[in-house]
Amino acid sequence: MSKIITDVVCPFCGTLCDDLEVKVSDDGSKIEEVYNACVIGTEKFLHSQATDRLTVPMKKDDAGEWHETSMNDAVEYTAQMLANAKKPLMYGWSSTSCEAQSIGHEIAELCGAVVDNTATVCHGTTLIAVQDVGVPSCTLGEVKNRADRIIFWGCNPAHAHPRHMSRYSIFPRGFFTGKGHKARKMIVVDPRKTDTAGMADIHMQIEQGRDYELLSALRVAVRGAPLPETVAGIPREIIQDAADTLKSGRFVVIFFGMGVTQSLSKNHNIDMAIMLTKDLNEHTKAAIMPMRGHYNVTGSGEVMGWQFGYPFSIDLSRGFARYNPGDSSSNDLLRRGEVDAVFVLGSDPGAHFPFSSVKKIWDLPSVCVEPHYTPTTAVSKLHVPVAFVGVEVGGCAYRMDAVPIHCRKVAEPPEGVLTDEEFLKLVLARVKEIKGVA
Questions:
Q1: Same domain, 300 and 425
Q2: CA–CA separation, 30 and 48 (whole Å)
């Protein structure tokens, strides 16, 4: 016999689709079907059933060979590593629950660690820009029900957020957008002809790295001032047409991704995009929103904000929180050799950090808490397998629009496999014993 669990949240991307239905066996041991999810979201659920899944911690010996170890030994190694390090790095946190993040931050505070999340290599520049100039934003529900002018700048939701356009931004029929995509105009700014660009009413094929200039030109066009013949490879007529299209809408929303945040000018690009949004508000209603990748990277910034006052790159080594991206960022610390241990949970720096940083992880005492085999687990000294958050354990996550959503448990983890939260609680208790903290 089987049962279907409804209203399941997908723990893949920042869209956090909450309309999935999952068919499971009566005892919850097997996921049989996943309905309504995109291909990637479906694979996230089904991958938890992999027959070659690691279920016991693995530790490297001095010769670099992997051996099974007990969970008690894994907790002891992790606690000793963090407690005895002068300045450990605790990185990741974007693919786990807010509850686990909070416990991890408590460990970081006790150990004088640097705690950082994946925003440091994606939307950290966005957070810096928001601190500079503020942000006029909204929820995805407002986008669905009200927005009739959509910009996708430096992002490709057709591949990275597969249900974003069908659930919220382009195709759905909302309360005030009853004609769906027929009543919306879509502008894509991207140097490549992506699948998202192929659906656009206007594709502005910008020259690589010249987002700041084009954003400035759009601000000029919105204000009705004269433009040069071309800006960033885009003819004046197309820029003016895009500005007029935006001004004629009832509600404009700018979605932007790493094509803007990690290109030349970094946070200044986002400063200019936010100011463009403010300029548009002189003519119509406008909002702006980052396309966050990991399903709970937004939540990680929120939890760090509650506990320390800053959203990423937080240095606790002096006994209080210091925030100085570029100095207290993970890659900078690793490349300068300023940390002496690395703890990774809920991310994969081995796949996304520069080689020089990954080599430091290889050289240092390191722990990776991760359900999968990944490039990071390969370079770490200890790999601790845990349950899949949002599949085998519930927990809170924040959608890309900063709306908190509770993820549901739909299946049982393999016997003996702990959750992130359970493992971190054991490590916290042991660190307190080592540090002599009540």
A1: yes
A2: 9
